[in-house]
Design goal:
Blueprint (H helix, E strand, L loop, with lengths): L1 E4 L2 E5 L1 H13 L2 H24 L6 E5 L2 E5 L8 H29 L2 H16 L8 H12 L5 H24 L4 H19 L1
Parallel strand pairs: 2-3
Antiparallel strand pairs: 1-2, 3-4
Helix pairs in contact: 2-3, 2-4, 3-4, 3-5, 6-7
């Protein structure tokens, strides 16, 4: 399903709807709402920095692995701007996580704590040193700015993914299966290995 909002193309893929249905069957309703809300906050961080730096998005796509924002190549202004845009989602998740945690301390409402924790989890995952994640993209732009060979960072991405997946597997041996860990494992494998081959 594709529709337009001004000059921005918005696409809702079948895989996105499949993800929502799967989450509905496997997860608590509150967790789904908190995850979707926190993901939107994350993407709003990227969008806000894009508009501040006058780099307008051309396409927003909702996929199996979340929301993806694209912009036309001609919109590129500087590596500094690209780094700020890449880190925008992490910054917003951390800010909202802290604000919501403060509101939880004042009100005692568990829902606020859940959304706060999910925001911090999304920020943490996007802070992994993996090339397709936010911090990884920021590092790649910095390396381009410094004219450094990016192949080193590709090796780091693969190494971190293997290390995280192995650590998750060891954790699962001693503790109950954690759906969140499995989801992160699948996501990391997809963006570092499968996506490279496709």
């Amino acid at each position: 399903m594709i529709f337009r909002f001004g000059n921005i193309s918005i696409k809702l893929s079948f895989s996105f709807f499949a993800l929502i249905v799967t989450m509905t069957l496997l997860c608590d309703e509150k967790i789904i709402l908190c995850s979707v809300l926190s993901s939107l906050i994350h993407e709003c961080g990227h969008l806000v920095f894009m508009f501040i730096l006058d780099e307008k998005p051309s396409k927003i796509e909702f996929t199996l692995f979340g929301m993806r924002i694209s912009k036309c190549d001609s919109c590129f202004t500087s590596y500094k701007n690209e780094i700020l845009i890449a880190l925008g989602g992490i910054i917003f998740n951390c800010i909202f996580g802290l604000v919501l945690f403060g509101l939880f301390r004042l009100s005692g409402k568990t829902e606020l704590l859940i959304v706060s924790v999910v925001n911090f989890i999304i920020a943490a995952v996007n802070s992994f040193p993996v090339s397709s994640l936010d911090l990884g993209r920021a590092i790649k732009y910095f390396m381009k700015y410094k004219e450094t060979d990016e192949s080193y960072f590709t090796v780091i991405s693969y190494f971190f993914t293997v290390l995280f997946v192995l650590s998750s597997a060891i954790y699962t041996v001693f503790y109950p299966v954690n759906i969140s860990l499995i989801a992160i494992d699948v996501y990391l494998i997809f963006i570092t290995v499968i996506k490279k081959w496709s």
